[in-house]
Every structure is written in C-alpha cells, then in structure tokens.
Amino acid sequence: IAPTGSGKTLVAVYVALRLLKAEPQAKVAFLASTTNLVQQQYEEFRSVLPPPWHNSVCPPVHGGADSRNRMPFAQALKGHSIIVMSTQILLNALKREPDSFNGLGVSAFRLIIFDECHNCSNDHPSKGVMVHYMRRKKILESSVEEQQKGSKLPQILGLTASPGTGKASRLEAAVEHLIKLCANLDCPYPVTVQRCIKSLNEVTSNPDCQIHYAPGDPTKVDVFINMLNRLMNMGEGLLRDYCDSLEQWQSEGLPVSSVPPRGTPAYLNYCTNVKYNMHNITDQTVCKNILACSRYLGCCNEAQMIAQCFRAVDALRYLETELRTEDEMAKPPASEAEERLRRHLDDVMQQLIRFCGTKEASSSPPLDKLVEILREQFTGQPNSRAIVFVKQKFYARVLADFVDECAELRLKATYVTGATSGESTGGTNAAEQRARLEDFRRGLYKVIACTSVTEEGLDIPDCNLVVRYCHVTNEVSMVQTKGRGRARNSAYHVIVAETQEWLKDKERINQERDAMMSQAVRTVAAMSARELEIQMLEYQVRMMNTDEDNQEAGGGDVNQANNNRGQVLDSDHDILCSKCFTQLSHSTRLRLIGDIHRVVVDVEMFASGGRLRGQAGGEAKRVPGVEVIGVDLVCDSCGFKVAKVVSYGRLFFPLLTVEAVLFRRSITMETERPARKWKATESFLRPVARLSQEDKNLWRRHVPRLPEHYRPYWN
Fold this sequence. Notes:
The protein has four domains: 8-161, Rossmann fold (3-Layer(aba) Sandwich), CATH 3.40.50; 218-362, phosphoenolpyruvate carboxylase, domain 3 (Up-down Bundle); 365-500, 3-Layer(aba) Sandwich (Rossmann fold); 573-713, RIG-I-like receptor, C-terminal regulatory domain (Metal Binding Protein, Guanine Nucleotide Exchange Factor, Chain A), CATH 2.170.150. Helices cover 45% and strands 16% of the residues. The chain contains 24 helices and 22 strands. A six-stranded parallel β-sheet has the order 6-11-10-7-9-8, with helices on both faces. β2, α3 (73-79) and β3 form a beta-alpha-beta unit. The two termini are 50 Å apart.
C-alpha cells in the first residue's frame, strides 16, 4: 500500500525478477483491469527488466475486438515466464480452459500480482480469480496426493494506493473492511512504506483539494428545460397509451406510471429499461412505437442533464446530433409515434433555437470556472497537461468540444470514455483510447475529458492538473483521480454547480474517509500475522460457502446457468434493425472469422442494395484478422448504422454490430433481450459456425468485389 506515483509497479518487477532468478522455470501473472493498463504495465516490465528476462515477457493479453494481440492463453502460458494480462482473461481461462493449466489451476503460477488490488473487495474479476485460488488451497490442504507431488499455491502480491473504507463512518468499520480485503487476497502481511515515508512524500504528488462553487441563475436553465418538457410530456403520454394496451407489460415489473425525475441518471435507466423490456412483446407495431418514445425521451433527458452542467447551446447541439441529422430527417418515420414526436420536435426546436441565440444560453458558471482554472494553469505553464473527469460519457464529448472551440483558451482537447460505449453516445473503443492517450502524452492534446475509465493506474508523467467537473464519487476514486497528476506541484480542483451543492459535502466526507483509511492501514499493519489470520479466516469461510452454494445452483458453469434460467437453443432467429424492426437477415447466415468477428454471409442483404446502403465510416484500419475499409452499412429503411464492411482474404463482408440489431425467434416471433456484447447472445443463439471454404467459394461467385453502391464511400 503506497501513494500513487510511488513506484509500486517497479516493486512488482523487482519481486518477479527475484523469483525468476531463484526459480527460472516459474510463471508470473501480472493482472490489470483495463486494456490501457495492460499495455502500459507490459511496456514497464519490458523497459525495466534486464536481459535476458525482458524477452520472457509475453506480449500483452487482453480482450477487445481491436486488440493487437490475440495469442491463445495456453500458448502464452507455455512460451513465456511473465504474462501481463487483463484479470478477466485469466478468470475466463480458469473457467473455460482448465487444460491450459495441466490440472494445476492457479498453481501453474508461482506469483500472481494484482494491480489496483482494492477491486478484490468488490464483485470484480480479481475476486473471481481468488475464488479459484481458495478452491485450490482447499484441495492442497485436504489431498495427500497433491502434497506428495509438491504442488504449491502461488504467492499473491497486491498493489494499491487506496484500499478504501467500504463507506465506513467509524474506524472500526474501516479496519473490518481492510481485513476483509486481506482475506479475499489471502494476505496476512499488509505492507506500507514506513522508514522512508518522508523522502517518499517529497517525490510523490498529493495536491490539496480546491473546491469551487459555481452559482448561477436557475431560471435560465429552467427556460430551456421547460421547452423540452413539452416534448417529454407528449412522449410519456404516448408511452403510457401504448403500454396500457399490453397486458403483459405490467408483469414485466416496469409500471410506466412510476417515472423518475427528469434530467437525472435514474431517468436514463428508466428509458433503457423500457427498451429492454420489449423483448417479449410480439406486436411489432407497438414495439416500434414504444422504441421511438424511449429514444426521444432518453435524448431529451440527456439534453436536460447537459443544460444543467453546461450551456443551453451545448444541449441544443446534442439534440440536433442525436435526433435531427440530415440522414435521419431524409428518411420517413419508422412508426406513428416517431412521426408525431418528430413533428412536435420541429416546433420545439424553433423555440429552442431562438432561445439559444440569447446571451443567457451561451453562459455557464461551471464552465466559466473551468476556463478560469485552465487559463491560470496554461498561462504560467504552457506545456501543462490537464485531465477533466466527468460523470457521463456524453458529458466528455461536450466538454472536449467546448474547450476545443474556446477562443479564450486556444487549447486542443479530446475525450476518452469506456470501450463498450457506442460511438453515437460518445464512446471510444480501445484503439481510439490508446491513440488519444498517446497524443495527450505527446502534447498534441493539452486537455482530455474522461470518464472513470482512466481513473486507475494511468501514468501521464507531464499531467499537472486534475479537475473533477460536477462529479464526486468515493474516497477510492478521489485518491485515484488525484494520483493522475504525476508532475511536481500538481493541482486538484473540484467544480460544483449550484444544483449540486451536496457534492461539496461529499468531497469533504471523502477527505475524512481518506484519513480514516490511512489510520485503518496503520492499525492492521500493526497486528501480528497470527492475529490477522484468525480474523481473516471467518471471511474466507464465508467466501467458500458462497462459492459452494453457487456451484450447487449451477453458477459455476455458464452453460448450466443458462439452462437453469430456462434458456434453450431451440430456434433460429431473424436479425432485425433495432430501430425500425426491419428484417435484415437470419441467424443461420452468421459466420465466425478468427473466433472474434461475426459476419453475415447473405448475398441478398449485402449485394442487392435493398436492405442496406453505404455511408462514409471513418479511416480504414486493421484489426486482428480483418481490415475495416471505412464503409459503414445502414438500414435502408431508417438509416440506422448496423454494420461495417471488412476485407478478409480479398473478399468483402458485412461485419454486424450486435448493439444495433435485435434477434427474433423465427418460430414464436418473440424478440430476445437486446445484447450489448456477442457473449450475451450465446444464451439464445445456436453456436455460430466458422467461415468455411465452401462459404468463401459461394461468396466469391456472387460477391467477387465490393458492390458498386458501396464504392463511393471506400477510402
């Protein structure tokens, strides 16, 4: 346990090197939570380890469709001494590839290092890995045969700057939380820096928190919100009417009469739940109407949230981007509800545009305070780097655009959000994250707006300004975000809007809990190993009892768990556009390329031009196994983006986007729940066949080259 920027990764490298010198055949696993951290820590190991050990580090092993390295786990384990990988990859391998470990499980490693090990106290993959560790420990303690073989448990090394308090309000509860974390990691030796703490504090950055309260005139925001409320009143009324006509809707547990307050994350969740609860409704006309209502309400709610923290003109731009693109307006409405909402939106937009032409709509006290902080920082230190943390992914895009366009600042800005987010809602995939963060390191961007995806572990040596913009979470996040300011004399600011005054108190509570956390660490570190082991044992017994209950219930096996939920793979599925429910193809036409990419081998869908049309899709790029050529495919009925064109073996295929489609059972016409990842479709889709030579020959006969109607968009 040591401060951010104090060299915990170097400690891990030293421990791994010492082990490999003593046991050259040993295996070491270094686990990190995100793709960016896996890549960063791999580069750290490679640069610090002396020869010949630096060649024993396996190329980074992590998930993501655009991962540069897709080395099979068994190959990585067999051919390398040190594997830097995502925690989820190891957990998946322990569950699904037991043969890779030669029956040893986690004992195949002599050392497992958990980066940001405080996550092991939560429902996190690191805790799942430790459950496998505890199973192995139980086997070794009870099996004479295993003991005679000389099997050993791996050593566990956890690294963190912020073990947290578990929301404790008393020191005793904070100590209990830390003991539970030690139990989850089977670690009776919590270590902190003691002898050299003074010199350590001199070289690490721990800036004081400066809280800024940004008052304003709420009536200015209310004018904009009241205009939007007229459209939302209509949307909620239509939604109630359509839902009241469905008897099964109430049984889904989502009564539309219980609507959360507008302009809140709870309302966003409500709109998402409305969409996800349509999967059992067989009336496709009603489905289209409900989908249109939930989409318009969700976008209007996001615009209200933007107006509260930014400017009315930013909220107006967001609405135009989401609901009034040129492509969308050129298409006829997909449903009666969309037609009525679009017509009403046209009327409301005229009023919003007039209001946004006023001076009031172009001002925002929180943004003014941000400009003041950035101007002061960059005037004196023009080579500074600033990270601004926001709560919502669409906030990040809005803030980056504002800084980029601010004539007073003249700073280039970008944004990074979660890799699972869709591009239309401000998401950035793993490749974009790496590219933007690297450009930020190099100084091509001076300001970067981020969600929590960059809170932990990210090392930007020149970053000397961290700002939390209208967003405060817990004491762990506070420590982690402050730690992104790695340069000497870094500054840490929290900006609180008038509507969020309670955040000031929350940040002060975080500071108190941070002090309590340090005291809890000292208390636990002062315990004897025997005393700590006794207290840890109770939590470990609970962990194993819970694990045994899950295994008995089928939770230990993914397929069995699906069967227990009543999921049966007894039907093929129609593939529908998730916006207008137009049928695009059929699940029997799905094929796998390289165990990652699902393409649709459907000549009529791709080549005839009746179901899809092309549009420019950004730069061409290589991803593992295929090449994205820069052509997006949109539904011809509604203009919604559903796929990309990829090149594979000199042939062109449509690569389906799972978030953009729905799957409807061909027999019963029931629509499955929307899936955000292909993994989620395994509970209802039959296994997808690999692209065979026969498939390629058929495709080559019918689609020998890229169809003419897509070529104008090909880079």
